[in-house]
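Action item from last meeting closed. Structure (178 res):
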C-alpha cells in the first residue's frame, strides 16, 4: 500500500514538471528507457539497492549508464530517487506516470486476450468499438491465450469483459451450481 502512495507522489511531481516544461512525451520515453533497463538488467537494480555501496557510486553509475540518453531532468530525478533511497520504486513510478499522461491526453489502454491470433482489422474494429463506448483514444494490444478455447477476454483499465468460451462455460457452470 505504501509503495503505491510513494510511487504516485513521485509520479505526480514528475508529471507536473514534464507538463510545465512541455516534455510529457519525451520524458515518458526517457523514463521508459530507464525502466526497461532496470527490468532487463536486474543486476543493475541489485547494485543500486545494495546498502554498502555509497550513494555517490550509485549516482556515478546511473550517470554513466544514461548520460546522453536521457534529459538532465530525468537524470536529476534518478539522483533524487537515489538520495531518498527510493530507486526500488522506479517501475511503479513509471507505471503511475504513464497512467497520468494517458489520463491527461484522453487515452486508455486495452488488452485483448484471444485463443487465436487476431488480425489488425479485428483489433482496429475492437478499438473503434471501445473508443465509441469510452470516448477516449484506445491503445490496444493483444495476447494469445489458447486456454480460452475461443472468443476473447478484453481488459480496459480495471474492467474485464469475458466473452471467451472458457469464460462462458464457467458462467454456465456457476449458474448450474445455484
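Sequence:
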Amino acid at each position: 500500500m505504501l509503495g503505491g502512495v510513494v510511487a504516485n507522489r513521485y509520479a505526480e511531481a514528475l508529471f507536473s514538471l514534464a507538463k510545465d516544461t512541455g516534455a510529457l512525451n519525451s520524458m515518458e520515453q526517457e523514463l521508459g528507457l530507464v525502466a526497461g533497463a532496470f527490468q532487463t538488467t536486474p543486476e543493475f537494480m541489485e547494485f543500486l539497492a545494495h546498502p554498502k555501496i555509497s550513494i555517490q557510486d550509485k549516482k556515478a553509475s546511473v550517470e554513466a549508464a544514461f548520460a546522453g540518453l536521457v534529459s538532465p531532468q530525468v537524470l536529476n530525478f534518478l539522483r533524487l530517487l537515489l538520495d531518498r533511497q527510493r530507486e526500488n520504486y522506479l517501475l511503479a513510478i513509471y507505471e503511475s506516470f504513464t497512467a497520468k499522461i494517458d489520463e491527461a491526453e484522453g487515452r486508455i489502454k486495452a488488452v485483448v486476450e484471444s485463443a487465436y491470433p487476431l488480425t489488425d482489422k479485428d483489433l482496429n474494429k475492437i478499438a473503434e468499438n471501445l473508443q465509441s463506448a469510452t470516448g477516449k483514444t484506445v491503445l490496444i494490444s493483444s495476447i494469445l491465450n489458447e486456454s480460452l478455447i475461443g472468443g476473447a477476454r478484453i481488459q480496459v483499465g480495471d474492467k474485464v469483459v469475458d466473452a471467451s468460451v472458457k469464460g462462458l462455460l464457467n458462467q454456465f457452470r456457476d449458474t448450474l451450481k445455484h
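Note appended to the action item: Residues 2-21 form the longest helix (20 residues).
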